[in-house]
Design goal:
Helices cover about 55% and strands about 5% of the residues. It is globular. The strands form two sheets. Strands 1-3-2 form a three-stranded antiparallel β-sheet. It has a two-stranded antiparallel ribbon with strand order 4-5. The chain folds into three domains: about 40 residues; about 120 residues, no CATH class; about 100 residues, no CATH class. About 5% of the residues have low confidence. It has about 280 residues and is mainly alpha-helical. Strand 2 and strand 3 form a beta hairpin. The longest helix is centred in the C-terminal third of the chain and has 23 residues. Helix 8 crosses helix 13 and helix 12 crosses helix 13. The chain starts with a helix and ends with a helix.
């Protein structure tokens, strides 16, 4: 634990807050307390909303490359959503690669520009030697190449020009989401949202809701608290009727996916459904 405490002290504010908001379930209670203590020591505000966190990330990235010409930066091939750009920012911030973030006009789309340095050429000695040249003669990856490599470990390009979290990352995001962190007024909780699910999504979600009604006791015996048991019947009716979903219904759906995401009866396509709901809550 002492090693973790020393490591955490070197984390950026953004990385600390990202762990606090999205990775709670990946740490033991004792380990997570170290993050909370460091956040308290720095007097960081954990209630900062998604808009403020995005603005802070953009400002911090821009400040880090203020001495470099913007003409020397090249955009990554796809844009990011508001929530995903925070994840990408955390990945690149740890790498020390120069970059900045730019919001597209009239859209919640974010481009990341990476410093376009040249790849150092291999030496003539390396070209002439046979067999393969020594390690020091190997080509060193450029900053842009490093950035693409890091981003593609976690994201994949979509046909519409947007980066999407790879399925394993979407699943990790789902598991780490803390329902208790969601706070909204009674009026907001009752508001009917202008959203709809596909027929397949409705079918699979209704199936999970019925399973949880039958299996809630066994689920809680395994240490998982079922927060929205009393709302399951109402959500089933909406899934099989005309909809009319609220923010609370969204949380019920996220909980269904969290409970059953490792179950063989779970349709993995629901990970993206849950990810879209989490994006909504980040707005």
């Amino acid at each position: 634990m002492n090693n973790l405490r020393e490591t955490v002290q070197d984390f950026s504010d953004e990385k600390l807050l990202n762990i606090y908001h999205t990775m709670r379930d990946e740490y033991t209670e004792e380990a997570f307390k170290i993050f909370e203590e460091e956040i308290a020591r720095r007097n960081l505000d954990t209630t900062v909303n998604a808009n403020e966190r995005t603005e802070m990330a953009i400002a911090a990235a821009a400040a880090a490359v203020a001495s470099l010409s913007r003409d020397d930066f090249h955009p990554l091939e796809c844009y990011f959503s508001k929530s995903d750009v925070l994840i990408a920012n955390s990945i690149l911030n740890d790498s020390k690669i120069p970059y900045f973030i730019k919001k597209q006009e009239d859209a919640e789309k974010y481009d990341i520009y990476v410093y376009r340095d040249e790849e150092p050429p291999r030496s003539r000695v390396g070209e002439l030697l046979t067999p393969a040249p020594f390690i020091e003669d190997q080509k060193v990856m450029s900053a842009l190449g490093q950035a693409l490599s890091l981003i593609h470990e976690h994201f994949e390009p979509g046909e519409d020009g947007q980066y999407f979290l790879r399925r394993t990352d979407a699943l990790g995001r789902l598991k780490s989401f803390n329902i208790n962190d969601m706070k909204f007024s009674e009026r907001a909780a009752r508001e009917v949202l202008d959203v709809e699910f596909s027929a397949q999504e409705k079918k699979e979600l209704a199936k999970l809701a019925e399973l949880l009604i039958d299996e809630a006791d066994s689920v809680e015996e395994r240490g998982r608290v079922v927060f929205f048991y009393d709302s399951l019947e109402a959500v089933i009716e909406k899934l099989r009727g005309k909809g009319g979903f609220t923010r609370v219904d969204f949380l019920v759906i996220v909980e269904l996916c969290q409970v059953y995401c490792d179950d063989p009866r779970y349709d993995a396509a629901l990970n993206q459904t849950a990810s879209s709901i989490l994006d909504f809550f980040m707005e």
